[in-house]
Amino acid sequence: MTAAPDYFEDLAPARAAYQRLLGDDIAFRHWTDPGDLTAFDLVLPLLVWGYQRDCPRWFALLDRMERQQIKLANPVSVLRWNSDKSYLLALEKAGLAIVQTVISAVLTADDIAEAARKFATDQLVVKPPISGGADGTFRLRTGEPLPESIAGQPMLIQPFQPAIAQEGEYSLFYFAGTFSHAILKRPAQGDFRVQEFLGGSESGTDCPSGAQDLAVDARKAAEQILDTETLLYARIDMLRDVDGQFRLMELELIEPSLFFEHAADSGDLFATGVNAALTR
Predict the structure, then answer these.
(1) Number of neighbouring beta carbons within 10 Å of residue 253
(2) Which residues belong to CATH 3.30.1490 in the chain?
(3) In whole angstroms, what is the distance from residue 31 CA to residue 48 CA?
(4) Residues 248, 91: contact at Cβ < 8 Å?
(5) Secondary structure class of 124 (helix, strand, coil)
(6) Could you tell me which of 164, 214, 215 has the C-alpha nearest to residue 192?
(7) Where do the CATH 3.30.470.20 domains begin and end in the chain?
């Protein structure tokens, strides 16, 4: 499934990559109006970009696919759980080192001040629990007025991580439980958001010591929490805290950009995983 026709990002490169890897049997359906999916052997929600902008429709689609027993990779239970970033707290409870996170049900200036005290910093990042592409994400200092678009809304609050500008954010990619490749994403000068359309950049990289340990633990913890088989695909985003420890930023299990151009095999491991899923 793909984003709606009016989504602002260019889907063409990603579509071409999946066409190259999966062949002529692949069909692209817009997630906002996918039609009948019951005839497909496997549905991959890899390009459902923008679902955070129409949550009722997204969750209704998940409910429908669950009722119809559509075979998905990853399963509906995973997609539903991963849609809301409060899953970070479940992973923390399971023993994972996450970027420290608190959730405000109705964001106020008092919440910002309390989080600043808790995290011992005057620089915070706030984002909606259901978000993507840096939508609704802000870097705030204590005492600054809240942007109108997020005041009174459910929001995650995290301490700003200086490493995002100093070193960057690592993404590790796993297909059917096997490590594929890693990239390092950096924001534009003066920004903290790493998305390409905001001026960010990425490059292939080797995994620093400890990064794969956290990634494997995060993936396995999610599989255990959800009582599911090995995930067909997973992107694990992390960075170092001020003490140099890797901390999980996000576990991307719905529609992550997979950056096959930085994989040594150009994505063949992913295609092998999809073909194996088709035979199960």
Answers:
(1) 24
(2) 102-160
(3) 6
(4) yes
(5) strand
(6) 164
(7) 164-263
In what helix (H) or strand (E) does residue 226 lie, and over which residues does it extend? Answer: helix 211-226
Longest dimension (CA), the chain: 57
Cα torsion through 62, 63, 69, 75, rounded to 10: 40
Buried b (16+ CB within 10 A) or exposed e, 36-73: ebeebebbbbbbbbbbbbeeeebbebbeebeeeebbbb
Output b/e per residue, 102-114; b: 16+ Cβ within 10 A. bbbeebeeebbee
- Taking CA 113 as the corner, what is the angle to CA 111 and CA 116, rounded to the nearest 5 degrees? 110
Is the link from the previous residue into 74 a cis peptide, with omega within 30 of 0?
A: yes
Q: What is the CATH number of domain 102-160?
A: 3.30.1490
pLDDT per residue as tens digits for the range 179-210:
999 999 998 777 777 777 666 778 999 999 89
User: What global pTM score does this model have?
Assistant: 0.94
Q: Could you read off the pLDDT of 114-166 as tens digits, one per residue? A: 999 999 999 999 999 998 877 788 999 888 899 999 999 999 999 999 998 88
d(CA 172, CA 207): 8
Contact 224, 77 (CB under 8 A): no
- For the residues 232-242, what does the mean pLDDT come to? 96
The helix, strand and coil proportions of the chain, stated in percent and rounded to the nearest 5, come to 30, 20, 50
Distance between CA atoms of 180 and 171, rounded to whole angstroms? 11
Q: Mean pLDDT across the stretch 90-103?
A: 97
**CATH of 164-263 given 2.160.20.80, 1.20.1640.10, 3.30.470.20, 3.40.140.10:** 3.30.470.20
